[in-house]
Amino acid sequence: MQDEELLRYSRHILLDEIGIEGQEKITQAHVLVIGAGGLGSPAAMYLAAAGVGQLSLVDPDEVDLTNLQRQIIHSTSSVGQPKVASAATRLNALNPGTQVHGYAQSADAEWLAAHLPGIDVVLDCCDNFSTRQAVNAACVARGIPLVSGAAIRFDGQVAVFDTRKTDAPCYACAFPPDDAPPPTRCATMGVFAPLVGIIGAMQAAEALKVLMGFPVNLTGRLMLFDGLRSEWTEMRLPRDPACPVCSTHR
After folding, report:
1. Is 186 one of the annotated active-site residues of the chain?
2. According to the 3-state scheme, what is the secondary structure of 46-86?
3. Measured between alpha carbons, how far is 231 from 75 in angstroms, rounded to an integer?
4. Residue 190 DSSP class
């Protein structure tokens, strides 16, 4: 690690739980963020600031004026640009040491099959149930940890799905593919701006803990946040032995 890196990441290195060894694990990692919107904005920014070596972003959308109320990685001058291009500009300015790859398209099964090799952890920051299921299935098939987040109105949730652990559930154990919830979109239901920052920052924190091999993270636990009451609720997520996704990969 060069002197400039030692200085940049000194506040991490000072932590006994991280130190130089933990920081080197971060700087050698490749993280994939699905979605460069409300959740992906703070998640990607904290990951880049923390020194993740490679950061891949995938999102098919362009920046819209209505995004700027909560998607803090973008600016007014970014309106009309692909979100991944706008995000890459911001991340490169934040930390030139992080190599950013942007993909202006949807993360479908074919794309995931081609791009997941070499990824250390995936953050699901999208708002589409079918994409969430495709991402989960791809992560399960390759044994890649998945950090899932969601936010709508004043309610948020975050969990880690790491099927490298034999007793851990996958996303489909908790949210079966054939039981899709009613569509929920910010454009029709609204979302409290700081809520996505809270959940996205938690996703970044959990991803970094997974990368460094911390013994405690949110695997097998779903954290629910009520932004109106500022209350957290925890739910245990058991593995479903009959899960159509992960049961065949155990």
Report:
1. yes
2. HHHHHCCCEEEEECCCECCHHHHHCCCCCCHHHCCCEHHHH
3. 31
4. -
- The Cα–Cα gap between 20 and 15 comes to 9
Residues 21 and 12 sit within 8 Å (Cβ to Cβ):
no
Give the pair of three-digit tokens for residue 151. Answer: 């936010």
126, 186, 243, 246: the active-site residue: 186
Per-residue model confidence (pLDDT) at position 184 = 64
Helices (H) and strands (E) in the chain, counts: 10, 8
Domain boundaries, the chain: 3-249
| 41: Cα within 13 Å, side-chain hemisphere | 20
Task: Return the CATH number of 3-249, one of 3.40.50.720, 3.40.50.10190, 3.30.1020.10, 3.40.50.300.
Answer: 3.40.50.720
Q: Give CA–CA dist 199/182, Å, rounded.
A: 21
Per-residue model confidence as pLDDT tens digits over 139-176:
999 999 999 999 999 999 999 999 999 999 999 999 99
* pTM exceeds 0.85: yes
Q: 149, 123 in Cβ contact below 8 A?
A: yes
DSSP letters along 123-167, please? EE----HHHHHHHHHHHHHHT--EEEEEEEBTEEEEEEE-TTSTT
Other beta carbons within 10 Å of 158:
25
Rg of the chain over Cα atoms, rounded to whole angstroms, equals: 17
Q: Please write the tens of the pLDDT for every residue from 20-38.
A: 999 999 999 999 999 999 9
